[in-house]
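Researcher: Let's do a round of design. I'm pasting the structure tokens now; please hold your answer until I've finished.
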């Protein structure tokens, strides 16, 4: 009986150790993104649908209605942050991100990757929030409203 109790205690300890594992983010520490993220058992996955930017000027049309790529990125990330908060999560819990950028007319129809990165770097890889997600960034032809340049969706993982 003592062996059975010891075995059960050992299994419980191993299960607790497995549950205590943390998310591992790998890749070049100088990179703005993680090249690989491993989420162990014991985490809930949160899927946040693609978010688009808020209107900043109701009277404007086109890009001016939503702002430049940096402004739109900041607006989108703010919306994502608010959505995560409703699930008890933060931007530090984001493990995967998909960024869609429309070509900016002011940039000759090319995506403004630098502008997106300026906004992104205010949320990820900072001294106060060092976690970085895996990410893909793609240029697309359009979004749901004229003038929108940015849409972002994320997955987050929160310890149970």
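Researcher: That's everything. Go ahead.
Model: Designed sequence:
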């Amino acid at each position: 009986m003592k062996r059975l109790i010891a075995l059960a205690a050992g299994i419980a300890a191993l299960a607790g150790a497995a549950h205590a594992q943390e998310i591992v983010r790998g890749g070049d520490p100088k990179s703005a993104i993680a090249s690989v993220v491993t989420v162990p058992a014991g985490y809930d996955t949160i899927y946040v649908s693609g978010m688009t930017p808020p209107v900043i000027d109701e009277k404007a049309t086109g890009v001016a209605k939503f702002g430049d790529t940096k402004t739109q990125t900041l607006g989108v990330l703010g919306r994502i942050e608010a959505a995560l908060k409703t699930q008890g999560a933060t931007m530090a819990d984001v493990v995967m991100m998909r960024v869609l950028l429309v070509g900016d007319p002011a940039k000759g129809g090319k995506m403004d990757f630098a502008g997106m990165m300026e906004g992104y770097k205010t949320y990820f890889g900072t001294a106060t929030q060092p976690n970085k997600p895996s990410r893909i960034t793609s240029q697309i032809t359009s979004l749901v409203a004229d003038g929108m340049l940015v849409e972002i969706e994320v997955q987050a993982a929160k310890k149970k």
